[in-house]
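Supplementary Data S3. Sequence and structure tokens for construct A.
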Amino acid sequence: MPVLLIAIILGIVEGVTEFLPVSSTGHLILATELLGFDAEKWAAFNVIIQLGAILAIVVLYWRTFWAVLEGILRNNPMSWRFVRNVLIGFLPSAIIGVILISKIELLLGNAEVVAWALIAGGIAILLIEKLVKPGDIVGVAEMPLKTVLGIGFIQCLAMIPGVSRSGATILGGLTLGVERRTAAEFSFFLAIPTMMGATTLELVKHHDTLLSGASGVGFGAVAVGFVVSFIVAIVVVRAFVHYISKHGFWPFAWYRIIAGTAALIWLASR
């Protein structure tokens, strides 16, 4: 299969799944297995194109970021609290990610881990939807520091491929008293420093390979995957926020359980 076609397929997968509670990393790993790609060769690509989806958040929420910037220039306390909450929420994954990076990389090629994590995450969503009452914390700047830190530590579960970074942070927010839309939007904002940090690490580690195209996956393919994931993520995020505000997360739970079970059956039959 041509490299650019693979880049387009993976860009679509990334754009669709990055901000849904279904695990973009897990889906990219399963896609490489299902279509017979060399997972190691595409590992750096899979991380870097996530910046395309992150750029979609910057574009969709530019008014929010602009208002925060203006507020900081005027020394507005709420704007400073917004920035503080995003940075504090990012801190646990930054520290733990650096400490455990070698162990995390060992899991990134394990499709069976992804399948089991999809199932477990689906069950967790169903339980939280049933047992947790709607929260009353509205607005990222309104979130108390202990809630932000709690969500930050819960986000670290997403270092296991298949758990879902957005799923962990959203559901973590719900269990800590944050209302649905705010939990989802905080997850989006938290993704910016988190994924920029992960992408920077991958670029530093693999820049020689990407520049030379030695692995067969050069910057051209990365650029295509980036643009595709950006466009697809814009469409998906708009629909997702509208949907979960009215209907909740249970369809994503059943999707995870079905997809994880199908993946286990397929992996066992190979």
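Construct B, processed identically:
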Amino acid sequence: MPVTVLLVDDEPLVRAGLRAVLEAQPDIGVVGEAADGAAVIPLVRRLRPDVVAMDVRMPLMDGIEATRALLRSVDAPPKILVVTTFENDEYVYGALRAGADGFLLKRARPAEIVHAVRLVAEGESLLFPASVRRLAAEYGAGGGNRAARSALERARLTEREGEVLRLMARGLTNAEIAARLVVGTETVKSHVSSLLAKLGARDRTQAVIAAYESGFVAPG
């Protein structure tokens, strides 16, 4: 089945460009569009997209608040890919902390846009890990987030789960982690599921953000 995408951006030209790029792929389909975050929840409930590509800055409801509202209100929510003009933007980090699965630059090349949608839909790797690391270094309190540190301590990750989390933060896929640790891919998937549950994280991105903010993984 193709990956279905909902486009949310207040600029019609951006939506048109993303639609053209994505619909040129046989495995991706655009199922709808919206001009503001306030329209996201009813559209998601009606269209059930796999991925929402959402502008981080919009006039009525921005991407951060729309992400929070969507995750709070919709059962089995879609993956959320924040679309932004600036990579090193506190708004982007805010969206990731709110639950977005990754971000995409508006100036990205068509191949990068397609790759980002596919990767976020699959959920088995961190999108742009170096950029997430830089954002965490600038806006993540340098490991001094006491709430994140307490949550990580309560999680009581095993030694192997800690190894997996560190490799996830470097952007390795499940297959790459399996090769590095000399274990099966299914074993890695089991460790990932376990550590996500222990951390109360929706996905890899949220787990990695928690790891940086708690100081478990250094962003430098």
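The mean pLDDT is 92. The longest helix spans residues 185-199.
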